[in-house]
Amino acid sequence: MSQLVVDLKCLKNKIARKYDVIHKINDGNEELDGIHPSERFRIVVRFVDFLFCESDEERTDGLFCKVVVRNLRCLSVENSEEEMCLYMCERLFSTHKNDFILIDGQVLDIRVGAWYGAYQSPPVFEIISFKILSESDVCDFFEFVRSPIGEKFLNISNL
To answer: In terms of Cα–Cα distance, which of 128, 104, 149, 137 is closest to 42?
Structure first.
């Protein structure tokens, strides 16, 4: 099961903490978390831009482009302008290239994997799948997240 994340800053901090654990970096103040070689998260974010990968290293690793996303403003998230780049492989891009036209500001429901590797610093965030949410989907999502049940769910699921 993937965790639902509504604040990219929280996701980055949690992943950075886990990266430190993998490489046995400990400030001595906290207990080390258990680590998995990869994790999956579900994020609901705003689309900002595509950046096609130009380096040979990224291309060799099968990474085709970066999708730039931001937190949703209307969720009362403190870090509403927090941005993040997520990698997309060529296969996923090719699968959807004729299906959609992404526009700045569209809301996306994304399944993302955080891959921890011996040579990756920091960990790589790769899009596993995504969906462009309709206006009614977005309204339903906000209604759920703001409800008492949604708040409980986020407390259990979120970072």
So the answer is: 128
- The CATH number covering residue 72 comes to 2.40.50.140
3 state SS of 105? coil
The model's pLDDT over 90-113, given as tens digits with 9 standing for 90+, comes to 888 777 766 667 788 899 999 998
Q: Residue 85 in contact with residue 43, Cβ under 8 Å?
A: no
Q: Could you tell me how far CA 71 lies from the centroid of its own chain? A: 10
Instruction: Write b or e for each residue in 6-37: b if 16 or more Cβ atoms lie within 10 A of its Cβ, otherwise e.
Output: bbbbbbbebbeebbbbbeeeeeeeeeeeeeee
Report yes or no: 130 and 69 within 8 Å, Cβ to Cβ: no
How does pLDDT run across 21-61, given as a tens digit for each residue? Answer: 544 545 555 554 444 567 788 999 999 988 887 776 666 56
Total number of domains in the chain: 1
**Domain carrying residue 11:** 3-157
Q: What is the pTM of this model?
A: 0.77
Helix (H) / strand (E) element for 92: namely: helix 90-96
